[in-house]
Structure formats: C-alpha cells, structure tokens
Design a protein that fits this description.
mainly alpha; Four Helix Bundle (Hemerythrin (Met), subunit A); 2 domains; 4 helices; about 0% strand; elongated; binds zinc ion
C-alpha cells in the first residue's frame, strides 16, 4: 500500500503536456493541478469512508481478550492511517487555495519554479528539490 505522505498515487493520471514556449503556471496548468488535487482528495475521502464502515462492521464483541487485543491493535493502526489521511486532505485543501493565487508552483524558500514534473509527483510540494534536500540535511543534523 503506498504511503499517502510519500507519493502521489492517483489511479487515473495523465501527465501534463507542455506546449512549446508555454508560460509556467498558466491557466491550463493551474486547471490541470486543480483537477489533480481534487481527484486525489476524492480518493482519500473514499479511503477514509471505507475504513470507517469496515471498522463498524468489524466492531463485533470478541469474547476472547486476545482477539479483542489484536482487533484493537489493528484499529489503532487504521486510525493512525486515517489521521494521516485527514491531515493530508487538509494540506490538499490549503494547496487548492494556493492554486488560486500567484504563489502555487514556486519554492517557498528561494522562489524558483518547482516544476511541473515535481509537482505532479508531489502536488502539495512547497519547496524546490534543492531547498527540500537542504531542509532534509539540516533536519538530519539536528536529529543526529
Ligand atoms: Zn528553493
């Protein structure tokens, strides 16, 4: 199962075809990313719904404490995943707001174009590859 934080795994996804000399983040590109974010959001919502109903079905009372324990463990794992997905949905909502402004697609730290291909892989990215890498190095240094 793909980690929703790590990669963008939309089932029906057509990469954007740039025309020659096309302006970065023009109306077509914005429409592309808006649609992409919305279908990603929809998939996540469906995933959340599925788990909730699955958990309702499974929430039978097991008389055996060992069964109950393993069920609780499974549920808490699922709840953590759902929690991550809910956070991601919030992030997508914020990104959708950003798409309506002039700031979408540009690095938060240095202002360069993040790039279509990188945004297609990570539509919620707010840093360019260089700044992201730098960020990760700094993070490792703080932690290590
Ligand atoms: Zn940057």
């Amino acid at each position: 199962m793909p980690d929703p934080n790590n990669s963008f795994a939309l089932r029906d996804f057509t990469p954007y075809q740039e025309k020659d000399g096309e302006e970065y983040m023009n109306a077509d590109q914005k429409a592309h990313f808006r649609a992409l974010l919305l279908s990603w959001r929809k998939e996540l919502m469906e995933e959340v719904d599925r788990t909730v109903s699955h958990m309702k079905d499974e929430a039978a009372n097991f008389p055996d404490p060992a069964d109950r324990a393993s069920q609780e463990e499974e549920f808490s794992l699922e709840l953590r995943t759902r929690d991550r997905e809910r956070k991601l949905i919030k992030k997508i909502d914020k990104t959708l707001e950003l798409v309506e402004t002039e700031d979408y697609g540009y690095c938060d730290a240095c202002g360069v174009e993040i790039g279509i291909r990188r945004l297609e892989a990570r539509p919620t990215a707010t840093l360019c590859v260089d700044c992201k890498t730098l960020d990760e190095i700094k993070e490792k240094q703080i932690l290590g």
